[in-house]
């Protein structure tokens, strides 16, 4: 099984880095692949609304909304062991907290791209599980 995880980890790279840690993720769900599949489906459904909330907050210049929406996203991506996405969401959360929104639009675009890679990788992981 270790080799399968190692090859899976190689498949889940974006720009030569892991979008999330599949080993840590499986540990997080105690190896329950059905639970993981359900969580991925739920995240994939809720993700567009969370991104939309962040985008709206950035466009409106609403610090408090940005802080809240980014905090929610950060918590969600941490559940999938997605450190880079969590860091990006955390940066937006901090911008909202401090009211320093300069650069928030660019950071949002980076986060959106990272989330797209994350969702793609998560779906790949659960689809490979289904094929076995």
Structure overview:
With 132 residues, this protein is mostly helical. It has a single domain (2-131), classed as HPT domain (Four Helix Bundle (Hemerythrin (Met), subunit A)). Helices cover 80% and strands 3% of the residues. It is built from six helices and two strands. The protein has a two-stranded antiparallel sheet. Strand 1 and strand 2 (17-18) form a beta hairpin. Helix 5 packs antiparallel against helix 6 (104-131). The longest helix is centred in the middle third of the chain and has 28 residues, at 33-60. The relative contact order is 0.16.
Describe the structure concisely.
With 132 residues, the chain is mostly helical.
Based on the model shown, name its key terms.
single chain; 132 residues; mainly alpha; Four Helix Bundle (Hemerythrin (Met), subunit A); two-stranded antiparallel sheet; 2 strands; elongated; disordered N terminus
Number of domains: 1
Structural class label? mainly alpha
Q: What's the architecture in CATH terms?
A: Up-down Bundle
Strand content: under 5%
Rg (CA only): 15 Å
Topology:
Elements: H1 2-11, E1 13-14, E2 17-18, H2 22-28, H3 33-60, H4 63-78, H5 83-98, H6 104-131
Antiparallel strand pairs: 1-2
């Amino acid at each position: 099984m270790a080799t399968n995880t190692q090859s899976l980890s190689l498949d889940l790279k974006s720009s030569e880095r892991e979008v999330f840690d599949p080993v840590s993720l499986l540990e997080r769900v105690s190896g329950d692949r059905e639970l993981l599949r359900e969580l991925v489906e739920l995240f994939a459904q809720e993700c567009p609304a969370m991104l939309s909330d962040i985008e709206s907050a950035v466009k409106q210049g609403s610090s408090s909304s940005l802080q809240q929406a980014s905090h929610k996203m950060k918590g969600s991506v941490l559940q999938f062991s997605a450190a880079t996405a969590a860091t990006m969401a955390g940066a937006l959360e901090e911008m909202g907290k401090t009211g320093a929104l300069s650069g928030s639009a660019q950071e949002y675009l980076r986060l959106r791209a990272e989330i797209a890679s994350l969702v793609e990788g998560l779906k790949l992981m659960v689809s490979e599980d289904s094929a076995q």
